[in-house]
Specification:
mainly alpha, globular
Length: about 170
Amino acid sequence: MAAIGLGLIFLFILAAGGLRSVEVGCQNTQMLHVKNVWISAVASYAVALSGFLIFLAVSRLFSSAPLPTLADFEHMPWWAPFGGLIGGVAVVGMITVAKHVGIATFNAVVIVSEMLVALVMDDLGLMGFAVRHATPMRLVAAALITVAVVLMASDTATDRDSGADTLVAERIS
């Protein structure tokens, strides 16, 4: 049973990761039409907030989970609510730079940076996570993934030199 639960967790992670590529495409397309990075970011977050408010309302109908109390918010670390703002940096990155390197390279570089920061956070048990040491096997895996990203990024430079990134606006219209 535990293997099935873990399998479902990894399936969810894979689906969420795949949706990140779709998100990059949405952000890029929106920017091509709106032409303002800040309006694009605000529009994206307004849509996300609307969607999550709907999810919250529906979940209240079907869940008996308690709502947080004022004391819960008072005991929360000061930095905890900034996750959305930090995520906004990723959105601005998607809007401004993904079009220059392509979705695959953009996401690959994001994955490496997330992985390297996560290795340090796990090793030190930061931000409420249990300690999971950066073992030699985990470090070798991180190095291999980093090498793969370097190969992908060098191939992206070749694509840009050949003019493969032209006529993007025409393809989406």
